[in-house]
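User: quick one, sequence for these tokens?
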């Protein structure tokens, strides 16, 4: 029996199920403390395995394409925050301050890695540049995200830590395991390549674990008592508008700067997406535990909207590229 086209992917269904479980059966007390410790270990393992997965050759392969990487960097860490601030007077009064703080937080996050590369490949874009650009975005985001967040996200609900302390915590919990994994690649890299399902399990499992703990604490603090269905629908509209503006700007900018079609595709996908895998762990470090649930909710909605939208675009552009290549191919002799 084929899967219905309207049904979300398994991971999205797992996210929804996790939120429902956390809403009905939130962890409390000592159980919550134990789960918090477990999430810290899971996140460190996640970034360790990502470090082991990324090859030095992949970094070097796209590193010389500096104009493309600069444009993606500007889109990720300058364009998005400016859009979020520009939309604030329009949408902030319509949703709760905590939710719009989450919108601003997603605006300062790095680009996603796996899906940016996957969609670039499907659309016949510059894959090596996508690998380099998205990976560099994740590393730079470890330092820039808490810095920019301190400038544009309201301090309400923050963990009352300084920028340097937030950056230090992120470096310790995310960057150190990542670097350790990359250094260990010479010994475990081939095993990682043969067992990609392990990385996927740790990747998705750690996110689900953090989401459960975050929403448990938010539910205990009364998250759903202060949020209406209208707020959620308006939040989805905000995320849709944000993504649409980002896609249009990156598309126009890539054309105006004279990039070829393959590079344009890479810029659009890497410059318009935000990382759930990096965002949720960062939110756990930057914000107070009782605020993380509301902060990551916009990111979860944006993540699903960007996946559905970019999947359609990637399939369409890939089909066009294949059709064009077929026309250019010499016809076989009779």
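Assistant:
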């Amino acid at each position: 029996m084929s899967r219905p086209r309207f049904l979300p992917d398994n991971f999205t269904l797992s996210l929804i199920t996790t939120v429902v479980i956390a809403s009905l059966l939130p962890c409390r007390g000592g159980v919550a403390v134990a789960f918090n410790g477990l999430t810290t270990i899971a996140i460190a393992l996640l970034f360790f395995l990502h470090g082991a997965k990324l090859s030095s050759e992949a970094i070097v392969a796209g590193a010389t394409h500096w104009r493309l990487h600069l444009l993606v960097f500007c889109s990720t860490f300058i364009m998005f925050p400016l859009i979020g601030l520009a939309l604030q007077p329009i949408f902030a009064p319509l949703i709760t301050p905590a939710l719009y703080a989450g919108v601003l937080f997603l605006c300062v996050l790095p680009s996603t890695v796996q899906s940016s590369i996957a969609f670039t490949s499907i659309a016949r874009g510059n894959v090596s540049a996508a690998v380099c650009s998205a990976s560099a975005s994740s590393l730079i985001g470890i330092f820039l995200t808490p810095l920019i967040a301190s400038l544009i996200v309201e301090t309400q609900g923050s963990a009352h830590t300084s920028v340097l302390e937030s950056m230090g915590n992120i470096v310790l919990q995310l960057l150190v395991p990542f670097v350790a994994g990359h250094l260990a690649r010479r010994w475990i890299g081939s095993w990682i390549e043969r067992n990609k399902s392990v990385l996927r399990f740790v990747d998705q499992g750690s996110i689900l674990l953090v989401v459960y703990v975050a929403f448990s604490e938010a539910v205990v603090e009364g998250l759903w008592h202060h949020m209406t269905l209208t707020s959620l629908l308006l939040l989805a509209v905000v995320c849709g508008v944000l993504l649409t503006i980002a896609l249009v700007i990156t598309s126009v900018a890539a054309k105006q700067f004279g990039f070829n079609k393959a590079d344009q595709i890479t810029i659009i996908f890497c410059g318009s997406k935000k990382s759930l895998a990096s965002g949720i762990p960062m939110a756990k470090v930057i914000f107070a535990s009782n605020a993380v649930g509301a902060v990551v909710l916009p990111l979860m909605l944006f993540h699903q909207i960007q996946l559905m939208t970019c999947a359609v675009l990637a399939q369409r552009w890939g089909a066009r590229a294949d059709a064009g290549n077929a026309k250019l191919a010499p016809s076989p002799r009779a």
